[in-house]
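User
Please review the sequence:
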Amino acid sequence: MCKIFLQLWRKWRDQDKITQYDILSYVPDLKSPIILEAGAADASDTVRFSKIFPYGHIYAFEPVTQNYKVCQKRLKDCLNVSLFNLALGDFVGKTFINVSTNKLQHDGIASSSSLLTPKKHIELHPEIVFEEKEEIEVTTIDNFAEQQNLSHIDIMWLDMQGLEYKVLKASPNILKTVRVIYTEVSLLEMYEDSILYDEYKDWLLSQGFKIVKEELKWKDMGNVLFVKEKC
């Protein structure tokens, strides 16, 4: 009985989960895409992208040093990945990131770290604390694309703890070239000055994107897949 219950629970849990394979469903012609991933964390998604799109190229960003070192090890054999110890933001320069620690996990991955100050996150997830800050380099996507001579980016995979809207809005030039955006969204103000999903959604719709899949099974944050209406 327990085994059956576990199987049903996993099926429910994963039924709306957005994966890299969903991208292939909506833009099957993307055989060698340029992919930008912000918030690589432990590089799990990066490795999947590397395998699913072997002829594409992934530009992965991870600003937190302890996470970056894990990514370096995991990605050493992924020849189609370029890893950067940088944060994407709405300006170019230096700032401090709030580094998270999950007291219930011991994997060393600071997966809730953000340039924004934690707000409701502290109340809803007391097991995650923000006791350290780390000085990091920040750049905009437009500035990065210019430095790398990138004329376009096909796919963006954004897990930035509430900063996604600011990052996209600060880079209007490259945004015009993007076909797919996977983004974390805030249903509550988990971090100070983070835009909530309804407003963020309306803005992306105004930029020519449409919603193709939502993963909103939690009360605080979720994930949404957007695809450009006219490609």
Observations:
- Confidence is low (pLDDT under 50) at residues 3-13.
- The CA atoms of residues 20 and 49 lie 7 Å apart.
- The radius of gyration is 17 Å.
